[in-house]
Amino acid sequence: MNPRSWLYPTPRGLYCAPGDFYVDPAVAVPRGVITHGHGDHARPGHRSVLATPETLAIMRARFQDMPDTQQQALKYGDGVKIGDVDVSLVPAGHILGSAQVVLEYKGQRIVISGDFKRRPDPTCAPFEPVPCDVFITEATFALPVFHHPSDAGEIGKLLRSLQTFPERTHLVGVYALGKCQRVIKLLRAAGYDKRIWLHGGLANLCTLYQQHGIEFGDIALVSDAILETFKGAIVLCPPSAIADRWSRRFFDPMPAMASGWMSVRARARQRGAELPLIISDHADWSELKQTLSDVGAPKVWVTHGREEALVHYARSIGIDAEALHVAGRDEEEGEG
Q1: Is the domain of 141 the same as that of 286?
Q2: Which domain holds residue 94?
Q3: Which of 60, 280, 307, 333 could lock 302 by a disulfide, CB 3.0 to 4.6 Å apart?
Q4: Are residues 24 and 124 in the same domain?
Q5: Domain end position, chosen among 262, 277, 292
Q6: Same domain for 182 and 127?
């Protein structure tokens, strides 16, 4: 049976016909299965949503009008039958609650990776390779030039900069969901035990992570500071805030940015990052290749990024690979 006969892209998103549902649909649909809470995957307005409990919590925090009747929580490893399709979720290692969607129908197993990374991250469950007949993989950093350095090494750059410029406020641009919380934990793992200051736009999701058992140590909002100079402090903020009037309150700020895209000098300049930190929440080129080996799928469909390079590589090692152009998969630079 051709897997394209029962799972295929449509203008609304990736559609599973025998289950009558979409995976990460681009528009509001009757039933959606959501891999994780980032805005290019989780959208409002669906009549019914299936996701991990953590992803549902993120969606509730972002979409205030989600009725309980629309939500079906599925824990990692549990399964449910939707129509004639067995559906389960396994960790993707991307952010809190992120999942790969495992679909089984008439003896075929298709795994939809969603966004994923392979590196350790205490803010989310680690990626689990699932053997399958078809693997649908993201390709955000699917070019041979993308080899992300160690996370600890990049955090070390930030801490060395603090030592070199002890009077300057280090403003670190981070995406609010996933990157912010991960950078805090990386700083703690590196031994940084001082207060970390947050822009107000990061507060709600940090609180949500804390409610799910992720501890951050001493964090506080910039807006709550009294008689604080912020000299020598680390302040996390949305990337857009670095160039905003908000940043003028800080003494001689050192603009930094944490993203996998910081390996591209033009993007670092575009973001105004004097201190680019290459910290990615996606798999790099070598990790994508390793994942294809780990899952052992004879067919690979590539989406959301640099499809051509990964398709070419997969075919070179005997995998039947093709690009799968799914609606709504726009690149989010801040989320890299």
Answers
A1: yes
A2: 3-145+282-335
A3: 307
A4: yes
A5: 277
A6: no
C-alpha closest to that of 71 among 85, 86, 60, 84? 60
Is 273 found in the same domain as 157? yes
166 shares a domain with 56:
no
DSSP label at 143? S
> Distance between CA atoms of 220 and 89, rounded to whole angstroms?
34
Tokens 């007949």 — which residue?
133
223, two tokens: 């807006």
Question: What is the chain's pLDDT, residue by residue, as a tens digit (336 residues)?
Answer: 999 999 999 999 999 999 999 999 999 999 999 999 998 999 999 999 999 999 999 999 998 777 776 899 999 999 999 999 999 999 999 999 999 999 999 999 999 999 999 999 999 999 999 999 999 999 999 999 999 999 999 999 999 999 999 999 999 999 999 999 999 999 999 999 999 999 999 999 999 999 999 999 999 999 998 888 999 999 999 999 998 899 988 989 999 999 999 999 888 888 878 999 999 999 999 999 999 999 999 999 999 888 999 999 999 999 999 999 886 655 444 468
What the block records as the tokens of 143 is 């070019």
Q: Are 7 and 138 part of one and the same domain?
A: yes
Domain boundary among 277, 301, 316: 277
Same domain flag for 216 and 295 = no
Query: Is residue 127 located within the same domain as residue 75?
Result: yes
| CATH code for the domain of 182 | 3.40.50.12650
Angstrom distance (rounded) from CA 236 to CA 231 = 14
In the DSSP assignment, the letter for residue 25 is -
CATH code (residue 290): 3.60.15.10
**Is 245 in a helix, a strand, or coil?**
helix
Long-range contacts for 46-52 (Cβ within 8 Å, ≥24 apart)?
A: 46/70, 48/72, 50/21, 50/74, 50/80, 50/82, 50/87, 51/89, 51/97, 51/99, 52/76, 52/89, 52/97, 52/98, 52/99
User: Taking a C-beta distance cutoff of 8 angstroms, is the pair 140, 282 a contact?
Assistant: yes
Does the pTM of the predicted model rise above 0.70? yes
Please check whether residue 70 is in contact with residue 48, taking contact to mean a CB–CB distance below 8 angstroms: yes
